[in-house]
Amino acid sequence: MSQEPNEKPRWVSAINPATVILVCVLCLSILGLTVLYSASVSLKSDPYFYLTKQLIWFVLAAVACFAVSRMDLEHARRHVWIFAAVCLVGLLLVLIPGLGIAVKGSRRWLGFGPARLQISEFAKLAMVFGLAHYLALNQTRIREAARGFVAPLAWISAFAGLILLEPDFGTAALTFAIGVILLFLAGTKLRYLVTAFSGAAGILTVAVINNPNRLARITAFLDVEANRSAGTYQLWQAILGFAAGGLDGVGLGQGRQQNSFLPEVHTDFIFAVIGEELGLAFTIGVVLLFAVIFAAGLLHLRKAPNLFQFLLVAGCLLLISLQALINLGVVTGCLPTKGMSLPFISAGGSNLLLMGILVGVFINTQRAWTRPALMRRERSLKEVMA
């Protein structure tokens, strides 16, 4: 059968942004499981300790991904306030001694039997989901101060503020930044957003100044080598790991940084283990995979049929991309040290479960969005004019 001149081959049509994202996510997840097995060998007597835990969460994330991919987003939208209320209540509960599980001075987890859930991970999605719903309902009044700025900013601040109280400065800042970016994409006036960012920066500055540990971490970052035995110990060890790995790496399971030299090696600083054991090619590969996810997500957004789904998918894309950018920036010394997982790779069930849900949203919309919204509008106009 002959093919029209402008018709794409079937194999080209079959390759779409959401499929590309799924392939990249699987590559990152397999790499994460591999490196976590390497970390398990040296850190625990059980060589499958981290691998087993992560595999369980990976299966749960896959189930969540499938469930979300089959969900009717417009129907789920009717229950967004219930989801948001549950997350807000959860953020309050983690602050209560005896209910919230404290680790290293921060209360971020609730226990459910043998499992721990970090409520702030799901609160980020609730903030995005609720904000997308609200802005879509008020899109004709988005340029107004009250409806288009004050009300949605209060929504964003409620989530970011409770997360800040845990305290979790990084996640609070990430949540606030994503919310403000979504306001910008929805059409809120720029001068309002500049005011919001300035106010948030002032609050974070005061919070850091009043916390000696946070302040010491920031000042130590300004001179990494001079503070390598104290404030920048983790970062210095990560840099040594990258240097030792070189181009080819020292070999899987052969790195010295995971032998108690580098704290949080299986979570926040796992990228340094990849650099040391697998070398430059794999570190560049990880960066490229996240870049491809971001680029594919931008292409996917072209097909959004309405403002709600556009903002929801944009928020999901930012939750993945900005978190990855912050983690990579911290581990390579481009940003001050802040505990934040590397999506799909770091150990941590709550974040992996969230990432599974986010990927499920991409797959869901891949099935629902058939062609670019711009093309649909053009066709509708032609039909009206005919």
Give a quick rundown of the structure.
By secondary structure, this protein is mainly alpha-helical.
Give the arrangement of secondary structure elements:
Elements: H1 10-14, H2 17-43, H3 49-69, H4 73-76, H5 80-93, E1 100-103, E2 106-112, E3 115-118, H6 119-137, H7 145-164, H8 169-186, H9 190-209, H10 212-221, H11 233-245, H12 270-278, H13 280-301, H14 307-331, H15 349-368, H16 373-385
Antiparallel strand pairs: 1-2, 2-3
Helix pairs in contact: 2-3, 2-13, 2-15, 3-15, 5-6, 6-7, 6-8, 6-14, 7-8, 8-9, 8-14, 11-12, 12-13, 13-14, 14-15
What does this protein look like?
The protein has a three-stranded antiparallel sheet. The N terminus and C terminus are likely disordered. The protein is globular, with a radius of gyration of 22 Å. It has one domain. The protein has 386 residues and is mainly alpha-helical. The two termini are 32 Å apart. Helix 2 runs antiparallel to helix 13, helix 6 packs antiparallel against helix 14 and helix 13 runs antiparallel to helix 14. The chain is built from 16 helices and three strands.
Beta strand % = under 5%
* Global morphology: globular
Low-confidence residue ranges = 1-5, 374-386
How far the N terminus sits from the C terminus, by CA atoms, comes to 32 Å
Helix/strand/pairing class, anyone?
mainly alpha
How many strand segments? Answer: 3
Largest sheet: 3 strands, antiparallel
Q: What's the number of domains?
A: 1
Radius of gyration: 22 Å
Order of strands across the main sheet: 1-2-3
